[in-house]
Amino acid sequence: MEIPFFDLKRQYDCLKEELDNAFLRVFKKGIFILGENVRLFEEEFANFFGVRFAVGVGSGTEALHLSLKACEIGPGDEVITVPNTAVPTISAISFAGAKPILVDITQDTFTMNVKKIEEKITNRTKAILPVHLYGHPTEMEQITKLAKVYNLKTIEDACQAHGAKYRGKNTGTIGDLGCFSFYPTKNLGAYGDGGMIVTNNEELYKKLIMLRNYGEVKKFTSKIEGFNSRLDELQAAILRVKLKYLDEWNNKRRDIAMLYQQLLEGSNIQLPCEKEWSRHVYHLFVIRANKRDALKDYLEKHGIGTQIHYPIPIHQQKAYKILGYQVGDFPISERNAEEILSLPIYPELTTEEIEAVASLITEFQNLM
């Protein structure tokens, strides 16, 4: 049985008529930049997440970058985040001219260890940037408390956590700003790049509207230095269709995760956890295994697609040696990088396919 790690065609086949019609309406109208679909999608997204404002931008990376710029974070400033994230999280900080300061993660949720944040705060620290990794929220209560005490901004990287909740609140809506990616494989994905920033702060919202479009307050009139980072009409039209299904898709992901948990219970691999204060939306289903590489090879030999998110922690990336960290500085992130494996998980997976993946993992363990 061939089971791809992700299969966008299945999703398209389910929504073909709606998606095709959405595309055609944009083509017939002939407006492709900052038109009606972007405006309506921003309103619908804000309503879905229960915030006042949403700003569509070019990507999740740009959502983070522009959020930092809106908070006037730049050269000489420091932003606290984690080493076990996608490089774009760090790129966004670098784009703003600030320095990423890393703290290790917890062993169970793979998210920021909030107990290690305060020791990293200096007079140059301007923001904390937690990453809600794999669809599980970071423990936000301590972060928001520290931000208040030290007068820091909190910018949430919710690029893998569309619809996840922390103590009943949507991730991305707890800090000053929340950032989302619409990369095609996300829980809510476009057919290209795209991103969104959400906030309840009107001043930040007004700055973001300018920052995404050359700093303009009106056409050909730039009030501040800005960028070209706009969500386009075609992607917004597609995302408007898909947003209606996000809750349903997240529930299906949770059902798949529960079935994996049941089928792999009692095995010697570490399964994903879901803290009592969270609602995990399983953007990824990430296990830990002592013989990860051998397991990955075994599954792929039998037609099962897998990936590793992420094989090289940020401080071990050649591009970020400049940060000055050494091997051993973040032991949990480093160990995870050697043991984690992402299994197929998307709403269109069948029960038969999930059972086949779990059966092969059990078979591999028995061979060992």
TrEMBL record:
Its EC number is 2.6.1.-. Coiled coil: none annotated. Belongs to the DegT/DnrJ/EryC1 family. It comes from Candidatus Scalindua rubra. Pfam families: DegT_DnrJ_EryC1 (PF01041). The modification N6-(pyridoxal phosphate)lysine is found at residue 186. CDD domains: AHBA_syn. Keywords: Aminotransferase, Pyridoxal phosphate, Transferase. This is Aminotransferase DegT. Gene3D superfamilies: Aspartate Aminotransferase, domain 1, Type I PLP-dependent aspartate aminotransferase-like (Major domain). One of its GO terms (biological process) is polysaccharide biosynthetic process. One of its GO terms (molecular function) is transaminase activity. The active site is at 186 (proton acceptor).
